[in-house]
Write a structure and sequence with these properties.
single chain, mainly alpha, Growth Hormone, Chain: A, 71% helix, 2% strand
């Protein structure tokens, strides 16, 4: 094993700082998709279909970003060109998406959607694609540049910044409402508090990404091969005249066939976990509006107030995740930490369905934060420790399919499951809790031993 230079805390901080801005954008998207499309006129049974797009784009884009960034060696770096390009596109889309209801679109329905919803739909596709392009390089750079001994710490720092970004993104709408920006708008239009939240998120995103872009210097090909102990770099890394170094072409399907067992067992756990959170993002709004505000009209002040409160409880979830991330390393077994975290999250999900006091929801979402902390840190720690360095980006991109696929399945079935649950959105939170319990049961299949693949 080569002698690997130890990184300082601030080196690891700089490596992931841009993730703070990216996560603000992701949190704004997660907390407001249902709000935006419901305001534009979508039926509750349609909402889950809009949620298919974000994970679908992630499933397509992230493996490709991993594959091609593995082969990219240029003056700007290996992963950084993708990070910057994704951030620029995301900023542009964040300016346009929340204005979908204010533009002059036809009210005629095409496939059940009016013009504003179609504009929002295509904007959402571009937004999630660009966020995925900007997000994935941060995970890859930790895998590229941090030793096995420090990887858990580096991903914990990334998790901290991720949750801090979520906290800001979730609280933006209620913050802008507090400073006097209107939280209601004419029927079919997005409230100004949401529009300005997206503007603020876009500004912070580009500043944070530029910070990491300027502060981090990626390894050159020779340094990378030495760092990862690749004994015969020429077998996997070849110099191409005038173009630097590119990785030996290896098909994604072939890599998938030779993926380590950890890839598949952790992926199974991921399936249940991410399906559960898909239902939380989709149905928290309607559940809280109905249970705590007795509101069903999307244009009413009570309904919009409930949606602001969703941002608050999502922020509580982020705080719970930050605090629980400190607790996780104290467990002697990663598997035990995984199980306990998911069971706490399951209890939080199920309790949401029965709570009618907006402040009691703090406890529910705090418990959900424990599951979120485990989902952000443990899967990547387990997987990257089981991989060599040659195809780190490709495997992390493929592993993202274990995040995206369950969300697609859950979103596709959401309307059907909602009908089976009596069209009561609160019951979907119980379904989410059951899914986390199933995920906890599957953790026993995961091995903590590092395996090279």
């Amino acid at each position: 094993m080569p002698n690997k230079k130890k990184m300082s805390f601030w080196d690891m901080w700089n490596l992931s700082f841009g993730f703070f801005g990216v996560q603000i954008a992701y949190a704004l998207q997660s907390a407001n998709i249902s709000r935006i499309f419901a305001t534009l006129g979508a039926d509750p049974h349609q909402l889950s279909f809009f949620w298919i797009l974000p994970p679908l784009m992630g499933m397509i884009v992230q493996p490709l970003i991993g594959k091609y960034s593995d082969r990219t060696w240029c003056k700007m770096g290996r992963r950084k060109p993708y990070l910057l390009a994704g951030a620029i596109v995301a900023v542009l889309v964040m300016v346009f998406l929340p204005n979908a209801g204010s533009l002059s679109f036809s009210s005629r329905l095409i496939l059940g959607l009016n013009g504003a919803m179609w504009f929002g739909l295509f904007s959402l596709i571009f937004l999630d694609t660009s966020i995925n392009v900007a997000m994935q390089p941060f995970k890859m750079m930790v895998g590229d540049m941090v030793s096995e001994e420090q990887k858990a710490e580096a991903y914990s720092i990334q998790s901290l910044l991720c949750n801090a970004g979520s906290l800001v993104g979730y609280l933006f709408p209620i913050f802008f409402t507090w400073i006097g920006i209107a939280n209601i708008a004419p029927k079919g239009q997005i409230p100004p508090s949401v529009i300005w939240s997206f503007y603020g998120g876009a500004a912070i995103l580009i500043v944070c990404v530029m910070y990491t872009f300027l502060k981090v210097k990626e390894m050159n090909p020779q340094e990378y091969a030495e760092f990862h102990g690749i004994e015969d770099p020429s077998a996997s890394l070849r110099m191409t005249e005038g173009k630097g170094m590119t990785e030996r072409k290896e098909g994604l399907f072939n890599l998938l066939l030779h993926a380590p067992k950890t890839f598949w067992t952790v992926g199974l756990v991921q399936f249940f976990c991410w399906a559960a959170f898909m239902y939380m993002w989709t149905y928290s709004n309607g559940t809280i509006a109905a249970n705590c505000w007795n509101a069903t009209d999307t244009a009413s002040e009570g309904y919009q107030a409930a949606w602001n409160w969703v941002g608050v409880v999502f922020a509580v979830q982020a705080v719970g995740s930050i605090l629980w991330a400190i607790v996780i390393p104290r467990f002697k077994s990663l598997r035990l930490a995984y199980v306990v975290s998911l069971l706490l999250g399951a209890a939080g999900f199920i309790s949401v369905a029965f709570v009618h006091n907006q402040y009691v929801l703090f406890l529910s979402y705090f418990l959900i934060g424990a599951a979120w902390a485990a989902m952000l840190a443990l899967p990547f720690t387990l997987l990257t420790n089981a991989l060599k360095g040659e195809h780190m980006g490709s495997y992390l991109g493929l592993f993202n399919c274990t995040i995206c696929l369950p969300q697609i399945v859950a979103a596709a079935l959401g309307g059907v499951v909602l009908k089976l649950c009596g069209s009561v959105q609160a019951n979907m939170m119980i379904i989410a809790g059951v899914l986390l319990i199933l995920g906890a049961l599957c953790v026993r299949l995961v091995s903590e031993k590092s395996r090279q693949a």
